[in-house]
Amino acid sequence: MKLPIFLDNHSTTPMDPRVLDTMLPYFVEKFGNAASRNHAFGWAAEEAVEQARKQIAKLIKADPKEIVFTSGATESDNLAIKGVLEMYKEKGDHIITSSTEHRAVLDTVKSLEGKGKAVVTYLPVDKFGMVNPEDVRKAITDKTILISIMLANNEIGTINPVKEIGKIAKEKGILFHCDATQGVGKIPVDVQDMGIDLMSFTSHKMYGPKGVGALYVRKKNPRVRIAAQMDGGGHERGMRSGTLPVPLIVGFGKACELCEQEMAKDTARLIAMRDRLEASIMKALEESYLNGHPTNRLPGNLNISFAYVEGESLLMGMKDIALSSGSACTSATLEPSYVLRALGVGTELAHSSIRFGLGRFNQDDEIDYTIKKVIEIVTKLREMSPLYEMAKEGVDLKSVQWAAH
Amino acid sequence: MAYSDKVVDHFNNPRNMGSFKKDEEGVGTGMVGAPECGDVMKLQIKVQNDTIVDAKFKTFGCGSAIASSSLATEWLKGKTIDEAQKIKNTDIVQELNLPPVKIHCSVLAEDAIKAALADYQKKADGALIDTK
């Protein structure tokens, strides 16, 4: 076993060596521009891009022509939301989303809202982080042009009832965008069955290279149109200009193919490791609380709050394990996780949360090591915590008058 | 964010971690911060003849908060009440090389020192009145 251990696979994933192998010829040897129509260099590049497009489309049950390459999921989210709003502004300006979306969606709609270009409804989630499809239905007005709900949450892994939401969108004739960044490659995704019209996802969350992503744009029933957000050579059927990064796209395609082939095997392994990690920690440490849905969540996700200890100090005590926390101290905004807050998790428990993100390359001995370390550090920091001491003395912490600062 | 070696050292080997009985003679207790804010410090001093002979802390918070309170206990030991009053948060920032986002940890430590001294003073004054 090698240290440090990478257990932060929701932030990014290591690239699969098999992906790198397929990319290498496209840097020096086959360097052509896929838009060059008149020579062999361009043809080779175009062929590689179209092959990747097929691999990607197959994973999500789409047509290759429905894949638009972007720089990543953030760009895909921006393109989908701004592109739809601009294209369909005559129909209306109302967007429905949820309070636990990734910031690439939330900040995009907030910016449109701030400029007076859109009216936005932020749906609440239940205590497991799930959107209720009936809430979506109730929020629809005659001005609604877009529903944007994520497939799986990046912090707590909870999987939304996307198919039900897609059905409602179809019924009402409203476009449905799904930010599926954490879900594609990890759980089965079928854009037909789920009734998705636009879908954002990215290569680096599924063992592919960073810097490339895709937006699925439905071609039939209905044919979705979006306004390009960048002017240029009119690549990607006019929806996204810019020379295609051929090596990255080739890697993205291979990553999708591998995910499709190995999903069943990966899922079984991840769930076994994740459940063992969860059970061992929960058994050894009292007052540890699972955040997110107990079963309906991503195979590699585990998010736990450890009462009476603060998240950043937990991370500091486990220097050789790469993890993430919902604590304010680890965020740029100095606010604890808005996702956990939306679930109704108290601020103090949001500060105490740790996200474990398991991936394809994690091994059992790494999980053993992590279990041991987590138990050690939580025990040590609780010994050091005045809150734990007070709780043990029977003081109700909620009754204490704290001097907030 | 990278931590300074001193923060890491205090975090891994906290000095004077623990508690005195609050009602013990000569003990002053300061508790500052709030769980919702992500940090709570409890700092205690034991005073004999106007000198702090011992100090202890317990902290809920990030590594810098733990290091700041650990350092504070180290500095408090052996100081007189007057000298202890003069410890400033900026001294802690400098010693631990805290980045700007962690300055509030040092402020909290200074508040904890002041609160512990005030609590001791209050108890001492009370004892004085009682004996009169």
Summarize this entry quickly.
Chain A has 405 residues and is of the alpha/beta class.
Descriptive account of the structure:
The complex is a heterodimer of chains A (405) and B (132). Chain A is of the alpha/beta class and 405 residues long. Chain A has 2 domains: 5-9 and 263-393, Aspartate Aminotransferase, domain 1; 17-258, 3-Layer(aba) Sandwich (Aspartate Aminotransferase, domain 2). Chain A has 12 helices and 13 strands. Chain A has helices at residues 17-23, 40-60, 73-87, 103-114, 133-139, 162-172, 246-284, 311-317, 338-342, 347-350, 364-383, 386-392; strands at 5-6, 67-70, 94-98, 119-123, 144-148, 175-179, 198-202, 213-217, 288-290, 301-306, 321-322, 324-325, 353-357. The radius of gyration of chain A is 22 Å and the shape is globular. Chain A starts with a strand and ends in a 13-residue tail after the last helix. The mean pLDDT of chain A is 96. With 132 residues, chain B is of the alpha+beta class. Chain B contains 5 helices and 3 strands. Chain B has helices at residues 5-12, 63-76, 81-85, 89-96, 103-131; strands at 27-34, 39-48, 51-60. In chain B, strands 1-2-3 form a 3-stranded antiparallel beta sheet. In chain B, strand 1 and strand 2 (39-48) form a beta hairpin. In chain B, helix 1 crosses helix 2. The model of chain B has no long low-confidence stretch (mean pLDDT 94). The chains are: A alpha/beta (405), B alpha+beta (132). Chains A and B meet through helix 8 and helix 12 of A and strand 1, strand 2, strand 3, helix 2 and helix 5 of B.
Q: What does the average pLDDT of chain A come to?
A: 96
The total beta strand count of chain B reads: 3
Question: Pairing-aware structural class of the strands and helices of chain A?
Answer: alpha/beta
Total tally of structural domains of chain B: 1
CATH class category label of chain B: Alpha Beta
What's the alpha carbon Rg of chain B, rounded to whole Å? 15 Å
Put simply, the count of helices of chain B is 5
Main sheet record of chain B: 3 strands, antiparallel
CATH hierarchy class name of the largest domain in chain A = Alpha Beta
Number of helices of chain A: 12
Ends distance of chain B: 56 Å
Low-pLDDT stretches of chain A are none
Query: Structural class, from secondary structure content of chain B?
Result: alpha+beta
CATH topology of chain B: Sufe protein. Chain: A
* End-to-end separation of chain A: 43 Å
Assembly state (oligomeric): heterodimer
CATH architectural designation of the largest domain in chain A: 3-Layer(aba) Sandwich
The helix content of chain A, as a percent range, equals 25-40%
- Helical proportion of chain B, percent range: 40-55%
Most extensive protein-chain contact, per-chain counts: A-B, 28 and 31 residues
Q: Largest sheet of chain A, if any?
A: 7 strands, mixed
